[in-house]
Design a protein that fits this description.
Elements: H1 5-16, H2 31-44, E1 49-51, H3 52-61, H4 77-86, E2 90-94, E3 97-100, H5 108-121, H6 123-129
Antiparallel strand pairs: 1-3, 2-3
Helix pairs in contact: 1-6
């Protein structure tokens, strides 16, 4: 995926900021919950179709750590496909290609509110400086 500088800053704020009001951390969620959150983020940024590799790239780009040990999480394509196949809001439309049918209802408005807060406080801009 080619993320814009703004999207990179927003997503890094969401994934890594200790200044968020919502202290939920994607890294602390179970794997299937992480995949659901990534799908919701794709939907928020108008990405309606994606490949398994896009999820792998998300983990790499945003440096999502492992829950209980040192290092970064690097899920295999098989793990990602298994998680996606259990989800009701995505469907397979080709080899390793999926379409998002809908986001989780409760995710989009709180995410937008958190970004608004992050912009008002200058926290997102801090992450923006990393990408200039």
């Amino acid at each position: 995926m080619n993320w814009s500088k703004t999207q990179l800053a927003e997503l890094n704020y969401f994934c890594h900021s200790t200044r968020k009001r919502d202290k939920a951390d994607i890294a602390c969620d179970v794997f299937s919950g992480q995949i659901e959150t990534i799908i919701d983020l794709f939907f928020y940024y108008s990405i309606m179709e994606f490949q398994v590799g896009d999820i792998k790239d998300f983990y790499k780009t945003f440096r999502i750590p492992k829950i209980r040990s040192e290092g970064l999480r690097t899920p295999s394509p098989k793990q990602i496909i298994q998680a996606l196949d259990r989800m009701k809001n995505v469907r397979c439309v080709g080899e390793d290609r999926y379409q998002i049918l809908s986001p989780r209802d409760w995710f989009l408005a709180p995410y937008a509110d958190e970004l608004k807060y992050g912009y008002e406080k200058g926290y997102v801009q801090y992450f923006m400086e990393e990408h200039t």
